[in-house]
Design goal:
Elements (H helix, E strand, L loop, with lengths): L2 E12 L6 E12 L3 E5 L6 H8 L7 E6 L2 E2 L5 H11 E4 L11 H11 L4 H14 L15 H13 L5 E5 L7 H18 L2 E5 L11 E6 L2 E6 L2 H14 L1
Parallel strand pairs: 3-8, 3-9, 6-7, 7-8
Antiparallel strand pairs: 1-2, 1-4, 4-5, 9-10
Length: about 240
Amino acid sequence: MSIALRAENVTKIYGDGPDTVKAVKDVSFEINSGEFVALVGPSGSGKTTMLAMLAGLLRPTDGRIFIDGKEMSAMGDRERANFRRQYIGFTFQQNNLVPYLTARDNVDLMLRLNKKPLRNGVVKSESILTRLGLEQRMHAYPSELSGGQQQRVAIARALIHEPAVVLADEPTASLDTTLAYQVVETFANLIYEQGRAGIMVTHDLRMTKFVDRVIQMQDGQIHRIIDERAEIDELASLSAALG
């Protein structure tokens, strides 16, 4: 297995003087291709800031981030934006689908942005949307789709350009329990099948049943890493029992 993502002593500081806030403090971990990881923690734990740095949306104050062996944290703004578009797939909590594009066109948009041949891409986008159970909804606009369908379109868009790393920010926040399980299970299966590295920020510990590891953050630091299958399943089962 190859290392798709590596964070080395990553720190993010906001403000200065007495107003300084260390949102993330000296965080290090690695994620392999074909591995799905959950990043969890209470509000204010630093997980969302950490995800934004992994996505190249924020630059670390200190430390280094490598994606597919390339140091993204050392890149300038324009280079980082181009790199992010090619090597990172991202699903937002609110989906961020383009409202005047159909489901298929939203997925094809990533191919256009990366200047990939659209002729083969159309077949590819239709294939992945079918895999996600949206074969009858390809020509529907976001306003005509349910929340779960919109989230699946966002997943297809995040994966279509074959990124090294796929990041998901609270992908089940607006979904009921049944849809949440369906979306995360499908997301996990696609990550495994395509050999991507996946990271999901979630407040819903029930969803950890689909991941390989759980990285728990607290006060901007890694509190613990759970990588034993039995312990992960116990965490998910306990969370499900508590509702």
